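Hi team,

As requested, here is the filled-out complex form for the zinc ion run. I kept the field names the same as last time so the parser does not choke. Let me know if anything looks off before we queue the next batch.

— J.
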Amino acid sequence: MADLVQLWNAPDEPLDCLYLVTHEGGGPLDGIVLPGADRKAIGHTTAELGVRGLEGEVLVTASPSRNFRRIACFGIGKAEEFTVHSLRKLLRRVLEQAGHNREYQIAVALPVAARDVAPDQARAVALGELALADYRFDRFRSRPDEATKVDAVHVVPLVGEDETGLGALVERARRLDALVRLARDLGNRPGNDLTPEAFATEVSAMFAGSAVRVTVMGAKELEKEGLRGILAVGRGSVQEPRMVRLEYRAKKPRAALVLVGKGVTFDAGGISLKPAAEMAEMKHDMAGAAAVVAAMRAVAEKLPPLKVVGLLPLVENLPSGSALKPGDIVTMVNGTTVEVDNTDAEGRLLLADAMAYAARFHPEIVVDLATLTGACKVALGSELAGMFANNDLLAQQLERLGHSTGDRVWRLPLLPEYRHLLRSEWADIKNSAGRWGSLPASAAFLARFVPEKARWAHLDIAGVAYVSRSHNGLPPGATGFGVRLLMALLDELAEKP
Ligand code: BES
Ligand code: MN
Ligand code: ZN
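And here is what came back:
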């Protein structure tokens, strides 16, 4: 599985299909490297097929070359208009079709660059998409579906592309791919399987013997540290909450960074119970924590010249006789008192505690990822995450990296004007605003807990962490959103903080 993506060099056995990505006004074989005989024969066939490269054009035929059984041409329209986002969607469509057609060994020739990122970056994105071709979550299937799985994707080299350069990109794509898979696997696991305790145990095992130190805090330690926001949310469940701390420090760190991931292993809403419809999807409410785990794995592998701390508050949010109630007042770790207006606004209670706790690591940068609000999903759908930031440079950096990695983010207003929505009659603040403005109010709530002087970005990934059914060619379930973005951020901070 690790070698799903390979460089094509005419293997002995023919491949099931050659996918040619074609564009308007270009020859279908322009820019790709194929042996002379294949070139000639395939050139004839595509001419006969009348390939025009129009957007959405899909033409399939038997292959005249012995190296392939079939040829499929996917048109993209004008090359000048082709973006990195269209590129990802296109490749996912190609892979979906290959799966449907039971093609196990395919080749992909992609001779078009994206207009909005550097050629190398576009190539990296493409390889990253191809590497995920066979992702399935079949841990709980007694008979995994092998029939629609692609076994190998052979990348056809382009003119001017040297093998070592491409090989290095393939290697990188494979590593990234393993981390996205890790985040998806965690996200897809149901609540009865991935409890806070199981999550913490799994993470401990994962980092054992690595350069990342793991500390798991149970109820006792949470009590001792005064992390009562986390405890309060966890009180309704027999599953005890945890907080996992992942610490890494290079000899001479160039920057100090804290990553916080919301880890609600199941969110029923608590006493403010959610409606039954779609409640099962709330097993994904720990996707932020999963992305942080994956990012810390990257840190353990690459040992960047940084200090990086990952914080994972892990709880299950259920109603019960011992659960947190509307009207309850909780004193958070930094002393702020919060009136719990709605027990379903639990994410901010966890994040607030974790972020205030983060102050002890003196971070210059704090990034949190959380499936925080349905309102964000209403606003932006499943295309991009909502971002709130207290620093323009960090916001711009995340926008740029989001664009190039595909984990796109859209900045929303972090303004003091929204604070009044959280005014409480009885405590310093309440945890939920009314309907109007509830999305910026969620960020205004978190802002009160950000360590002083830290540049901070909050990513609301409620709409992008999972898809209910196949969307943009993504399989249903967890997407692994945030893994690529965090990796790109870490890479950049390691180079030029
Ligand atoms: N985990 C949910 C948010 C969510 C909703 C994520 C849909 C993914 C899809 C969160 O804990 C929640 O319930 N938020 C409430 C907040 C409200 C009570 C202020 C919401 O969005 O309704
Ligand atoms: Mn909730
Ligand atoms: Zn939640």
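Two things worth flagging: Residues 190-495 form a domain with the Aminopeptidase fold (CATH 3.40.630.10). Residues 267, 285, 342, 344-347, 371-375, 377, 432, 438, 462 surround BES (ligand 1) (CB under 6 Å).

Thanks,
J.
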